[in-house]
Design brief:
Layout (H helix, E strand, L loop, with lengths): L1 E2 L4 E2 L8 H7 L5 H17 L4 H8 L3 H8 L4 E2 L5 E2 L1 H23 L30 H7 L2 H11 L2 H15 L4 H11 L3 H4 L3 H13 L5
Antiparallel strand pairs: 1-2, 3-4
Helix pairs in contact: 2-4, 5-7, 7-8, 8-9, 8-11
Length: about 220
C-alpha cells in the first residue's frame, strides 16, 4: 500500500515509458536491470526504501549490484532511497484517484468520469432495474459500487475491463451481489468471460447510464 500525503492507495500500475527505460538501463547488465526493476516495483508499492530493505531484496547480490544502480536513487530526509521518476509516476496515480474520489463527493451530478454519481441513472441497459423488476433496482446497487469501481480501476489499471466486469455482473449475469461477484473474479484473475463482452456495447451502455440518457 503506497501512502500518499492524504490517501492510502493500492498501486497496481504506473506508466511505463519505453524510451525512458531503454535509455536509462543501456549500460546495465541484465542482472543489474533485474535488481533495478525489483527496487522500482517495491518503491511504487511501499514508498522510499530503507537500506535494510534494499539489502533484503537484493540478498547476497547486494554488495555486487547496489553500487552499480545506486545512482538511480536519491535519499529523503529519513535516509531512505527513492527514484525520482518513479515517485512522480506514483504521485500521479495517487492524485488521479484522489481527484476522482473528491469529484464524486463534491457533485452528485457531474458526468463523464467513473467517479461521478450513478445513483439516478443505473439500469440494466434495457430500461429495467437490476434484478428486481423495478426501475430503481440497479440504481441503489450500482450507486453503492462507486467506491469499488474506483478501487478496481486503480488496481487493474484498465477502466474498460472494469466496465466489462460491471456489465457482465449487472446486465448479463444479473447476480444478486455484483460487487462480490466482480471481486471474486478479480481475486481469481480470470477475466476471460468479462473480456468476451463486446467493448463497443459496454462503452455505449456505460456512457448512457452515466449521462442519464437511458437506452433507445
Amino acid at each position: 500500500m503506497h501512502k500518499g500525503k492524504d490517501n492510502n492507495v493500492e498501486i497496481a500500475y504506473v506508466k511505463f515509458w519505453l524510451d525512458r527505460w531503454s535509455g536509462g538501463v543501456t549500460a546495465m547488465t541484465f542482472e543489474e536491470r533485474g535488481a533495478y526493476v525489483t527496487l522500482l516495483v517495491e518503491q511504487a508499492q511501499t514508498g522510499p526504501l530503507p537500506e535494510k530493505k534494499i539489502k533484503r531484496l537484493l540478498r547476497s547480490d547486494y554488495e555486487k549490484l547496489w553500487p552499480e544502480i545506486a545512482d538511480k536513487f536519491v535519499q529523503d530526509s529519513d535516509g531512505n532511497y527513492y527514484n525520482k521518476k518513479m515517485m512522480v509516476e506514483v504521485e500521479s496515480i495517487v492524485a488521479y484517484c484522489a481527484s476522482r474520489s473528491a469529484n464524486r463527493q463534491k457533485s452528485k451530478t457531474k458526468k463523464n468520469n467513473i467517479c461521478s454519481s450513478y445513483d439516478k441513472h443505473m439500469g440494466d441497459g434495457n430500461g429495467n432495474g437490476y434484478g428486481s423488476g423495478s426501475k430503481g433496482g440497479s440504481s441503489t446497487l450500482l450507486g453503492a459500487m462507486q467506491d469499488d469501481i474506483i478501487k478496481w480501476t486503480a488496481r487493474l489499471g484498465d477502466e474498460t475491463l472494469v466496465w466489462q466486469l460491471v456489465y457482465l455482473a449487472v446486465v448479463r449475469r444479473k447476480v444478486k451481489n455484483p460487487a462480490a461477484y466482480i471481486q471474486s473474479i478479480i481475486n481469481q484473475r480470470d477475466y476471460s468471460r468479462a473480456r468476451e463482452q463486446d467493448i463497443d456495447t459496454v462503452i455505449e451502455w456505460r456512457d448512457k447510464v452515466i449521462s442519464g440518457k437511458g437506452t433507445p
